[in-house]
Amino acid sequence: MEEKILAGVAGLFPDSFERLDRFRREHADFQDDRILAFDREIQFHLAYGEYMARFRQNGLSFCYPEIATASKEEESLNVFDLSLAEALVGHQKRIVCNDFFLKDPERMFVVSGPNQGGKTTFARTFGQLHYLASLGCLVPGKKAKLFLQDRIFTHFEKEETIANLHGKLQDEIYRIHEILGQATSSSIVLLNEMFSSTTLQDAVLLSRLVLKQLLDRDVLGVCVTFIHELASMSPTTVSVVSCVEAENPDLRTYPLARKPADGLAYALSIADKYRLSYRLLKGRLPS
Asked: Burial level of 211, CB count in 10 A (0-12/13-18/19+)?
């Protein structure tokens, strides 16, 4: 009955229904941007929920962070790197969590210590927390208070390529110069082993110049480095050290600690590796 009535109305007003039919044909592919955005985002939200469930089954926590847009004081408890946790969960291995905090005027974590001790993992964790928080997602950790950044810049080591005819140091300088040209006081910068391809003297000079520019802009970030002097170059830098077993420097404990960088554990580990420690030398040399 409704169809017959509608057909009769269409016959009485053919022009109006012709315009309606033409509009339908011309806009047959029309989709509302808000509905499209919701469709994409709800899929991500549901997938991320399933992803988090895997870690929660292994006793790891996620939380909604407290977000700040003015204060740059931060605090996070029991945080972890999702990439590493993904690999460890698959092999039934223990996942080590870390805590960190920044109090005014602290801005930059300078992370030093032995290789394979969790330094790069800490830098990745710091970046992941802020990125996920900016998306409105739960972040890996028991508690988190984070600054809302405008952008996150990263500088991690890349393999040298002959395509651009640059040496490794030149390429690194170009990449860092690009970061310095765009970073603002609201940015986060993650630096991993800057200038490791040059001499120690040049690396110290260049690293100090880069960090000074970032700190002058009040940038938040992490600098993973083999240069221990950087940890104490400013009241705004915080020394964080990847730790080793006291009785066996070859064994990494993975939690990072806020303490002065001395490099002693790393030096002893290297000396033992090449059989140059006092104990090994004394055993090899005749008395």
From this structure: buried
Q: Sketch the domain layout of the chain as residue ranges.
A: 62-282
What is the Cα–Cα distance from 118 to 111, expressed in whole angstroms? 9
The reported pTM is: 0.79
| Residue 93 Cα to chain centre, angstroms | 22
Q: Tell me the residue type at 218.
A: D
- What are the tens digits of pLDDT across the range 35-66? 889 999 999 999 999 999 999 999 999 999 99
Whole-angstrom distance, CA of residue 59 vs CA of residue 62: 10
Q: Which band of pLDDT confidence, cut at 50, 70 and 90, is reported for residue 118?
A: confident
| Token duo for residue 31 | 């989709």
Compute CA distances 87 → 82, 92, 127, whole Å. 9, 9, 18
Cβ atoms of 81 and 121 within 8 Å: the answer is yes
Decide if pLDDT at 21 tops 70.
yes
Q: Which two tokens stand for residue 260?
A: 């002065």
CATH label, 62-282, candidates 3.10.310.40, 3.40.50.300, 3.30.565.10, 3.40.640.10: 3.40.50.300
DSSP 18-37: HHHHHHHHHTTT---HHHHH
Contact 138, 146 (CB under 8 A): no
Q: Which residues contact 197 (CB under 8 A, 6 or more apart)?
A: 167, 168, 169, 172
